[in-house]
Sequence to fold (286 residues):
Amino acid sequence: MSSKARHLGIAALVMVVMATGALSASDDDPDQLCLTCHDTFEATRLHTAHGLDRPNAPTCESCHGDGSAHMEEGDAALIFVPKGVESNETCTTCHAGIHTVMNSGDVHSTRGVACVDCHQAHPETPTTTAMLRAEPDALCVSCHARTERTFNRPFGHRLGQAGVSCISCHDPHGGLGERSLKKDHAGDTACVSCHAEKRGPFVFPHVTDMSGDCMSCHQPHGSSNPHALKRSRVDQLCLECHSPLEGAALGSQPVSTHDLRSPRYRECTVCHVAVHGSNASPTLQR
Fold:
């Protein structure tokens, strides 16, 4: 199409809009003028958090800026379209809480992950599920392929089974520590949300956040060892913290006093059965 023909077409469109009263209506509802051309976006936004019928919903110009020049010229380059990491600034204009968390040094914000990598402002299918591009687990494993493979190990969790999802334990917008793990109001990790019997508090706890946590012993995504333990031999796992070697222990843990050259002392949990904590035995024997 020639430039002259394009301008004539735009002029005709503006005349039609003015004739139907849409232009004057846009003074009260600026989105309506945009929807004159972009009519498909109305249906995809309607049932989302960005829906035009929602209180305090963003307008088209909230994300795309002033569209006057774009409307007059019909040039797509004259309207702002949030892309890549630049989209984060646009999104966090409204989502200030996410902005605060994502700027606290979490993994995603420091790896150049953009809001639009996971979310879409105009979903192809009307949805109410956080306007995601796909199901949460599918989005996570699209980047974390190595982690996805660990779920195939014989012991541990099974992604997608028994309600286990990546976001069951992780906060994609940031969390405490490198793993972005969720914590409840009591400061406990997401593990005890399912494993409530291990929550405590115990009179004699085994580990605390000061000297280890569940991941000190377990591989939550999957392990080749029973109980999803990090090591195949229990004594070797225990000695990572209870080592008699000075400076090699995690925190100030009681050191092992047994002669571990004897096989009878290599199954620590035969005696120390209350490995997650005890209300009766300081040595976790009952």
User: Anything to note?
Assistant: The radius of gyration is 28 Å. Strands lie at 204-205, 277-278. The CA atoms of residues 84 and 117 lie 7 Å apart.
